[in-house]
Design brief:
single chain, 281 residues, alpha/beta, Rossmann fold, 8-stranded mixed β-sheet, 45% helix
Length: 281
């Protein structure tokens, strides 16, 4: 094997290992519960923004448990819900047994679909977690037909979940070379650069998801520490060190308090996200 072939094989193995770690991370905890109890409404926001109609071919990339895919299917669309993590697809299939769609394991950076195969390609807080943003953006465009629509919902760096990742950053190993931070998908300039001149009518809306699930910052921390894969990974990375665990406990609870507001009606948070829609040229 030549040096070039050896280097290529090594890079392919590293990418395979990275994707395997990502899949394990999202399979840890209970992301279906996070979706069900906190973020599922975002799927409806995305499908409404894309105005999905009966008979359209729709691909949901990094679909998770299918909060967006299910809404599209209920409009009569022909839907494929794809995700890197089989356990999430299994949970989605179990949660939505009466909804007709395909549930397929697929890598957002290397989708197993033909060029221009779909009328609508979308992702709801999913594709943003693919480590190589340009590769993922290229696949979104490639699989959508000319004149078709792309739609995304992504957490912003300035919002609660963006701040969550910033708070966890000192507690986790640095990302591998070439990987980009997920919340960059929540910035207009980054998305514009990823798509370039391959789309038109590119529209951005910064919106907030009202969250009343938690009583205070400590409950916000505890919920994420128990159920959200990236937060579970951050705790695991402390190796059981009591001082480090106490530090991340303190920082995440403080974040929750800063991001919420105590009123007579309870504790309310507003999680900012970026809604993106575009038409493929």
């Amino acid at each position: 094997m030549s040096t070039t072939e050896t280097t290529a094989a090594s890079a392919a193995q590293q990418d395979h290992d990275l994707k395997a770690r990502h899949a394990r991370m999202w399979a840890s905890g209970d992301y279906p519960r996070v979706c069900r109890e906190v973020v599922s409404a975002l799927g409806g926001v995305l499908v409404d923004a894309l105005a999905v109609v009966e008979g359209e071919r729709v691909l949901d990339v990094a679909a998770g448990t299918g909060s967006a895919a299910v809404r599209a299917a209920r409009r009569g669309a022909d839907v494929v819900a794809s995700d890197l993590t089989p356990e999430l697809l299994d949970a989605g299939r179990e949660c939505h047994p009466d909804d007709t769609m395909a549930w397929e394991v697929a890598d957002a950076e290397d989708l197993p679909y033909e060029d221009a195969a779909f009328d609508v390609v979308m992702s709801c807080i999913g594709v943003m977690f693919a480590p190589h943003h340009q590769a993922a953006a290229d696949e979104l465009v490639r699989t959508c037909r000319p004149g078709g629509r792309i739609g995304l919902v992504s957490w912003t760096p300035e919002g609660t979940i963006g701040h969550l990742f910033a708070t966890m950053k000192p507690y986790v190993p640095p990302p591998p070379a070439g990987a980009s931070p997920p919340p960059l998908w929540g910035t207009e300039d980054h998305v514009r650069a990823l798509f370039g001149d391959r789309v038109r009518d590119l529209r951005f809306r910064r919106l907030t998801l009202p969250v009343t699930r938690f009583r205070d910052g400590a409950e916000f921390r505890d919920f994420f520490a128990a159920h959200y894969g990236p937060t579970i990974t951050a705790y695991t990375a402390q190796g059981g060190d009591p001082e480090k665990i106490a530090a991340i406990d303190r920082d995440l609870a403080a974040l929750g308090e800063r991001e919420g507001e105590h009123t007579d009606d309870g504790f309310t948070m507003q999680w900012e996200y970026l809604l993106v829609t575009a038409e493929v040229v």
